[in-house]
Amino acid sequence: MSYDVLGEAALDRLNILCPPPTNVQQAVSSHQRSPADAFQPPPMTPPRKRDLYMLLRDHAQGDEVLGRLWADVNAVPPWVCWEQIERGQEVFYRYGGPALTGLAFQSLLGGMVDWALQESLKLSLVLCTRDLPSIQPGGAGHASSIRVRLLHAAVRQRILRLAEQNPKYYDVQKWGVPINDLDCVATIGTFSATLVWLSFPRQGIWLRRREVEDYMALFRYIAYLTGTPHEFFATPEKAKKIMEVLLRDEINPSATSRILANNILSSLEGQPPTFASRSFLEASCRWLNGNELCDQLGIGRPSLYYRILMAGQVFFFMSICYTYRSIPILDRRKIAAFRRIMWSVIVEDKHGLGQETIFEFKYVPNLSKTTKAEKGRGTLVRRGGVEKRNLQAFVLGCIGITGVVWVAIRFLIRLLREVSILRGG
């Protein structure tokens, strides 16, 4: 199975320039590595935190492989239109609530993509959409995409090394090279095509044609930067087709998928900013992914009350998104406000990262670590959270629908009377 060979070759060089920390260094893979005597840089003292992007930037001029990767990621492809990329960034924030809800629960599609890939891309997405300069060469989002690319290579090497030590840890013959091109295409598709054609419609949101084109253009460029085959996202039609193929052929939840899915719900339970209960999270998951997949993942079946709350959330998102989208000045204000909120919650807030990340190893895979079921931390659930808002939205939505139906019935009755009078005359 194909994968990002250039990114991995560059990581091999960077590991020689600046060896990884001790707990990672032993796992550096020797598979497909270039002879060490072909590249003998002066020894360096490893810094406390190893920033692979900075190492790549600083040593690109002195090595052919590093120079090739650096030139590749900094060359702007001819199909990139910065105005379209900027509009694609705005699409994400215009529909920020439904987008975040969809992304949170698309991660539960066990068996299609690695959740770790999605989490690293989520953090990069915040930087890539902060503003246009952020994703252009030299920007924070551009740098984070390259860091994610090198992180994927590091994880791939680590898993293959562990598989060499214990073939039961990861079956290369059965699953292929880890974090391969298919995995990366599926991850990019989860953030783009699946969001546009599955998650948004299931939340009552339909994008305009131009918005779809702009959003796909943004993620085609992110795919290019992360070493993912980007041709699949060249047009909305191609992106939708690859999404349908992956959904048909690659969704196959395993025992690990079930554990991961429930662990994700446990990690979200009662946490800011939504303070959602476990039952509401399960209702959200079933609303977006369907009962069949959720049953395979072992997701609980919540009561009708929580399904009503999810319907209220759909009413809320539809009213907010369509209203603001139709009024340009409100649209611009909402996009700017949501950008600030996202940055504050994910990066600056005490419950967030606390600072911009350099995408280094946080939890290093090893043979003694396995995925286990975790308990939720539901101590922060409060009555004033998202569930109260959704209940209010559901009530108001029902009142609104009832009012519209009543007006329509009165109009039809009056129309029928007028017709009856004309015929009688």
How do the helices and strands line up, and which of them pair or pack?
Elements: H1 5-17, H2 22-25, H3 52-59, H4 64-74, H5 82-94, H6 96-106, H7 115-128, H8 132-135, H9 140-165, H10 172-175, H11 181-191, H12 193-202, H13 209-225, H14 236-249, H15 255-268, H16 278-289, H17 291-296, H18 304-326, H19 328-348, H20 386-424
Sum this structure up briefly.
This protein is mostly helical and 425 residues long. The chain has helices at residues 5-17, 22-25, 52-59, 64-74, 82-94, 96-106, 115-128, 132-135, 140-165, 172-175, 181-191, 193-202, 209-225, 236-249, 255-268, 278-289, 291-296, 304-326, 328-348, 386-424.
- Low-pLDDT windows of residues: 26-38, 42-47
What is the structural class? mainly alpha
Tell me the strand percentage band. Answer: under 5%
Largest sheet: none
Number of helices, where a helix is a run of at least 4 consecutive DSSP H or I residues: 20
Helical percent range? 55-70%
Rg result: 24 Å
Distance between the termini: 80 Å
What descriptors fit this protein?
single chain; mainly alpha; 425 residues; 0% strand
Task: Give your account of this protein's structure.
The protein is built from 20 helices and no strands. It is mainly alpha-helical and 425 residues long. The protein is globular and about 95 Å long. 37% of the residues are buried.
